[in-house]
């Protein structure tokens, strides 16, 4: 009985996550209805809370897939509660991605939950565990962009539309960055089980620096330009214009003051 009770508590949704969901819902409603005195503040809270929700779901997907693949330790670590405070690297998984959204408007991949890989047998299972997180970002991006490619935005307030476009931008960038086959990122985790032991051993020391390497490359204007051209092309194919993502980011940064161009945008 005690074991069953403890296992149930290990999988119970955390009140912290429920609180974040509530903030997302309330601020989304305030953005939609124009209830907030300062729409930029509502957009900021809505996008930030929704972004944290997606980060929690990203890590949950890793943990849940690992559980079904043989790592039963993830429950005791609190990974199945969707509580962002339970992750192995709460700073890397939650705080830094939010800071990067505020500073640069880019979906920074979070730090993955700690999986006991020795418990898992089969290369496909290892690959699927790594792919589960960014696939969640892909699914989140599909949900965010659905109103655009379904032409279901008639009568939708522009502030909410811009916020949704910016949130979609974050999900697409997060998915694309996470799927890069760079050591330390999920994309490398997908292909790692299929590499020879010698290759894995040679690459392993570079894993802690993989994300830093990617962002160092993104600082180069040429690489940055190509990266965001790809992002814009993906979003345009899904019905989101660069004007909508631009205005969403401008509205999100409410402390910079109102943007006359976006205020006049339909």
TrEMBL record:
It is a multi-pass membrane protein. The chain crosses the membrane at residues 12-32, 41-61, 90-115, 127-150, 162-185, 206-228. Its cofactor is Zn(2+). One of its GO terms (molecular function) is peptidase activity. It is found in: Cell membrane. Its main location: membrane. Keywords: Cell membrane, Hydrolase, Membrane, Metal-binding, Metalloprotease, Protease, Transmembrane, Transmembrane helix, Zinc. GO terms for biological process: proteolysis. Belongs to the peptidase M50B family. This is Site-2 protease family protein.
């Amino acid at each position: 009985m005690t074991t069953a009770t403890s296992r149930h508590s290990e999988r119970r949704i955390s009140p912290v996550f429920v609180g974040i969901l509530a903030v997302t819902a309330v601020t989304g409603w305030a953005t939609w209805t124009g209830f907030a005195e300062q729409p930029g503040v509502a957009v900021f809270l809505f996008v930030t809370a929704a972004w944290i929700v997606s980060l929690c779901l990203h890590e949950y997907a890793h943990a849940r897939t690992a559980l079904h693949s043989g790592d039963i330790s993830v429950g005791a670590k609190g990974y199945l509660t969707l509580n962002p405070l339970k992750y192995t690297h709460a700073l890397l998984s939650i705080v830094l991605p939010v800071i990067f959204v505020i500073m640069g408007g880019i979906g920074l991949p979070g730090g993955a939950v700690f999986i006991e890989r020795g418990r898992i047998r089969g290369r496909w299972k290892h690959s699927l565990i790594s792919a589960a997180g960014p696939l969640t970002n892909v699914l989140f991006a599909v949900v965010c962009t659905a109103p655009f490619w379904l032409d279901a935005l008639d009568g939708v307030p522009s502030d909410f539309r811009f916020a949704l476009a910016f949130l979609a931008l974050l999900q697409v960038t997060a998915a694309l960055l996470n799927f890069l086959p760079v050591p330390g990122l999920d994309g490398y985790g997908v292909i790692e089980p299929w590499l020879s032991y010698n290759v894995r051993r040679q690459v392993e020391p570079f894993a802690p620096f993989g994300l830093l390497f990617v962002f160092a490359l993104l600082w180069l204007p040429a690489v940055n330009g190509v990266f965001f051209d790809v992002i814009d092309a993906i979003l345009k194919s899904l019905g989101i214009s660069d004007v909508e993502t631009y205005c969403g980011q401008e509205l999100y940064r409410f402390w910079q003051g109102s943007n006359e161009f976006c205020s006049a945008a339909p």
